[in-house]
Amino acid sequence: MAVMSKLRDKTHIILFVLVGAFLALIVFEWGMNFTGPARKGGQVGKVDGQPITSVQYDEVYNGLRQNFMRGNPGAEVTPQAEMSFREQAWNIVVDQALVEGLFRKYGIAVQDREVIDAVNSELNPPMIIRQNFTDPRTGAIDRALLEKARRDPQAKAFWVKAEEVVKRELMVDKLLTALKTMGLVTDPEVDELVQRQLTRFSATFIPFPLSSAGTDAQFPVKPEEVKTWYEAHKQQLKQEPTRNAEFVLYPLVPSSQDSIQVKKEIDALVPQFASAPSDSEFVKVQSDRPNAVNEALSRADFSPTAGNALFGSQLAPGKIVGPVADRGFYRLIKVKSLSAGEPVASASHILIRSNPADQADLQRALVRAASIYEELKKGTPFATLAAQYSEDPGSAKNGGSVGWFTKARMVPEFSAAVFSAKPGQVIGPVRTQFGLHIIKVDGFDNKRIVCSEVVRQIKASSLTSESIKRKAMLFQGEAKSKGFTQAARLERMAVGKTGEFTKGGMIPMIGLSDQASKFAFKAKENDLSDIIETEAGFVVMKLTSKNDTGYRQLDADLQKRITAELVAEKKGAALKARLASMAKTPGATLDAIAAKDPSLRKVTSDEIRWRDGFIAGYGQDRQLVEAIAGMTLNRLSPPVQCSGGYALVQVTGRKLEDGVDPAAEKAKIMPQLMKVKQEQLFSEYFNAVRKNAKIEDFRQQ
User: Fold this and answer.
1) Residue 677 has pLDDT above 50, yes or no
2) What are phi and psi of 644, to 5 degrees?
3) Which of 28, 150, 479, 625 could be joined to 487 by an S-S link, Cβ 3.0–4.6 Å?
4) Domain limit, last residue, from 638, 656, 674
C-alpha cells in the first residue's frame, strides 16, 4: 500500500545488499580485530553476550574518520559528521560480532595451507592479491611481481596483514557455501525470465486514473475504519522508541561587528594577494576554501548581488576584485583570464503545484495558470503575482527570482524552455515533476573568469556567541519559573516542534545533536533541557511526549495518511468493479469504450519492454507491463492495476528480438540469477540474525 511505502521510505530501509560489497566491508574495513581476541579496555556494548571493546570500536571509528579526511582534504569535520562516523562504526562492529557468531555456529575455520593455496591459485585468487598484483595489460596475476614481493623483507608487515585478510575472505566463502542451499534456481524460472527479458510486446490499453472513480467526498472514511486499519497493520509500523519536543532557538548569527572584522582582515590581504608569487600557496594558507585556485566561474557561481558586483566591474587579467559579500562569505578574487562559455540564464517563475497522475488536479492547475496569465496581460507586475500565487516559497519572497543558473542545474523541462526563449519573454505553463511553471526569462550571460580566490566565512565571534548564549540562559530561567510557553510569548520567541525522532538520529529542525538526544531520552515529559549548543545556535528544549511502545503512534499525521490510503482503496475497488462490468459487456472493445468518453486516452504501443517496464509513447509503468507479460493475445483483459489507477488492455503481439539466441542468453542469465537470489536470501538471513540478536549499546550510558 502507498502509505506503507512512504513509511518504509522514511526509515530508509535497504532490503537487499550486494554480497560482494558486504564481503569487502568484512575483509578490508574490519581490520585485524575480525577474529582476534578482545583487547583490554572498556566495553561499548555487547552482542549476544560477546563484548565489544572500546579499542575495537575506536579503531573502526578512527579508520572511517581518516578515510573521510583523506578523501576531503581541508574539509571541516563537523559534529554531525562525527556522529555519523560513530553510528557507522557501531554498525560495523555489531555486524562483525554477528558474523563471528555465524563462524562459531557453523564451525568455520581456515588452515595456513588453505591460505597458501588461495594465494597461489590461478583460477580464483583472493581479492587482496587481485587488487595489488594484477597486470593491467593482461588482466592476469603478475606472478613475477608477486614472488618478488613475497621475498622482500621490507614487505613483511604487508604479508602479515594480507594473511589475515585472505583468511577472512576464505572464512566468508565457507560461510556462503554453508548457506548456499538458500538460493536454488530452477530451469522453468530461468526460461520464464529469458522469455520476458527478450520479448517485445505490442498492446493497446486505456488507463483510468483513480480520480475517474469520483471525488474523495464520495468515499467517506469513518474513524473506526482508520483504527481498524491501524491495528491490522501495526506490525508493519514497528519503530524504535521516539521522542517529541518543543524548542526555542537563539540563532548563532554574526553581528555587524563580526562582519566588519572579517572584511577588515580580508581587506588587509589585497596587496599581499596581488603580489603573491604563488596564488595556490597564498590561497592554501589564507582561505577557508584552500583549493579555490584557477576556478572557471560564471554568474551562476554567485548570488545575484555578488555576481552583479563582480561581472559588472571592469575585469582584466591580474585585477583583484572585492572583497564581495556572498551568502555569508567574503570573496576576494584575483582574475587570471577572461573568456566566453556556455550561457547561463537568469529567470523568475510562478509555481503551481499539481499531481501529474491526477487529471482533475492538473486541470485545476491549468485553470489557475490561465487566470495568472490574464492578470499579466492587464499589466500586473510578474514579481507581484509571484509573491501572491507562487507555491515555491523560496523564490516567491524574491518576486519569483531563482537567480542565475546553468542548464544542468534545473530540471530538463525548465532549462529547455528557458534556454530556447528570449530575454524578457514570459513562457509556459511548463510542466515538470514539481507542477506547472510560468516563467519570465530575465537574461543570459556567457562571461567566464578563471580566477583564484581567498574566501572567508563570516562567523560569530566568541564575544557574539557568549552574548547569544546569555540570552538563551535568561530565557531558560524564565521558562523554569513562568512556563515554557509563557516565557516564549513574553520574549516573542518562535516555538519550534521537532516531530518524532529516535535516539542518536537526526532531530527535525535541529539536526544531529548528541546533547539534545541524550536529554530527550533521559528526561521526563515537560522537562526543560540545559542550554544545548548546535551549529545553528543555542537551543532550549521541552520534552512534550515519549513513545516507548515500539510502534508508530496513531497521531494526526498518520490518521491523515491512513485516511488517504483508505480513500484510494475505496476508489480503486469502485473503479475496478466498474471496469470489470465494462469488459464483460457483450461485444466490448477498447474502441467502443473510448468512443463513449472523449476524455479517455487510448494508447497503442509496439515497443513494450518487461525488462525496464517501458512503454513507448506512454512512459514507464512496471505494474502494467508485468500484467501485459502474462496476458493472452487478442483478448480484452479484466481491469489490471497500473500506476495511479487501473487499465483495460488488449495484447496484440509478442516477439523475440532479432538475432537473439535464447539458449545462449539462458546460459548467461543462469549464474546471474543464482547470484542475485543467493545475495537477496543471504541479506534477508543476515538481517534476521541481526534482528533476533541481543544488542546492548553502552555508549550513551
Assistant:
1) yes
2) 85, 5
3) 479
4) 656
Question: pLDDT, tens digit, for every residue of 460-496?
Answer: 999 999 999 999 999 999 999 999 999 999 999 999 9
Residue 376 Cα to chain centre, angstroms = 38
Q: In terms of domains, do 381 and 445 share one?
A: yes
Rounded Cα gap, residues 245 and 526, in angstroms: 9
Cis peptide before 136 (omega within 30 of 0): no
Q: What is the pLDDT of residue 85?
A: 81
* DSSP reduced 3-state for 420: coil
| N residues, the chain | 701
pLDDT of residue 590: 94
Q: Helix 79-105 to helix 156-178 angle, to the nearest 10 degrees?
A: 60
Q: Which domain holds residue 83?
A: 2-180
Same domain, 208 and 229: yes
Residue 475 is given by DSSP the state H
Looking at the fold, whether 246 and 155 belong to one and the same domain comes out as no
Q: Same domain, yes or no, for 543 and 569? A: no
Under 8 Å between Cβ of 141 and 122 = yes
In a domain, 699, yes or no: no
Look at phi and psi of residue 499 and say left if phi exceeds 0, alpha if psi is from -120 to 50, else beta.
Answer: left
Same domain assignment for residues 88 and 172: yes
CA–CA separation, 695 vs 700, rounded Å?
14
- Evaluate if pTM is beyond 0.90: no
Dist. CA 93–CA 97, nearest whole Å: 6
Q: Which of 459, 488, 508 is the last residue of a domain?
A: 459
Which residues face 642 on adjacent strands?
A: 645
